[in-house]
Amino acid sequence: MATVAPPRPASKIDPDPAKLEQFMNKMVGDMGAAMSGPLVITGVKLGLYKTLADIGPATSQELADNRRLDERYVREWLSAQAASGFVDYEPQGEKFSLNPEQQMALANEDSPVYVAPAFELIASAYIDEQKITDAFSSGAGVGWHEHHECLFRGTEKFFRPGYRANLIANWLPALDGVVEKLQRGAKVADIGCGAGASTIIMAEAFPNSQFTGFDYHDKSVERAREAAREAGDLPNARFEMASAKEAPGGDYDLVCIFDALHDMGDPVGAARHIREMLAADGTFMIVEPMAGDSLAENLNPVGRMYYSASTMICTPGSKAQEVGLALGAQAGEARLRQVLNEAGFGSVRRAAETPFNLVIEARA
Question: Where are the domains of the chain?
Answer without folding.
Answer: 35-106, 120-363
